[in-house]
Every structure is written in C-alpha cells, then in structure tokens.
C-alpha cells in the first residue's frame, strides 16, 4: 500500500512539474512575441522618422535651389 501512495505522489509531482514547465514556456513565448512586436513598431517608427527627415531635406534643397535661381535671375 505504501508503494502505491509513493507512486501516486511521484506521478502527481511529475505532472505538476510538466505543467509548470509548459506554463513557463508559454509565458516566455508570449514575452518574446511582445518584445518582437515592440521592436517591429520601433523599427517602423524610426523608418517613418527617417523618411520624413529625407522628405524635409529634399524639400529644403529644392526650395533653396529655387530661391538661388530666383535671386540670380533678379540680379
């Protein structure tokens, strides 16, 4: 009878450990997924900022060139 109790306790402990490992793995997977999503969002934001900066530089360059041409033509 004692051995049966020991076997039952061991089986319960093994099941508990397996469940804990599975839950921990799920949590880690969710955290990793969240971090990846945050990284993607950051990359997209940085790309958008860079694109806006490039557009601003191009516009400024064109405006500057037009101003120079106008000044040269006026003089």
Structural notes for this entry:
The structure is a single chain. The chain is mainly α and 75 residues long. The protein has one domain (19-75). The chain is 97% helix and 0% strand. The chain contains one helix and no strands. The longest helix has 73 residues, at 2-74. It is rod-shaped, with a radius of gyration of 32 Å. The mean pLDDT is 94.
Question: What is the secondary structure topology, with strand pairs?
Answer:
Layout (H helix, E strand, L loop, with lengths): L1 H73 L1
Keywords: Membrane, Transmembrane, Transmembrane helix
Protein name: ABC transmembrane type-1 domain-containing protein
Organism: Elysia marginata
Q: Per DSSP, what share of the residues sits in E-state strands of 2 or more residues?
A: under 5%
Class based on secondary structure composition and strand pairing: mainly alpha
Biggest beta sheet summary? none
Give the helix proportion (percent range).
over 70%
What is the tally of helical segments? Answer: 1
The number of distinct β-strands equals 0
The chain-level mean pLDDT equals: 94
Task: State the distance separating the first and last CA atoms.
Answer: 110 Å
For the record, the count of structural domains works out to 1
Shape: rod-shaped
Extract low-pLDDT stretches.
none
- Secondary-structure element order, as H and E? H
* Rg, nearest Å: 32 Å
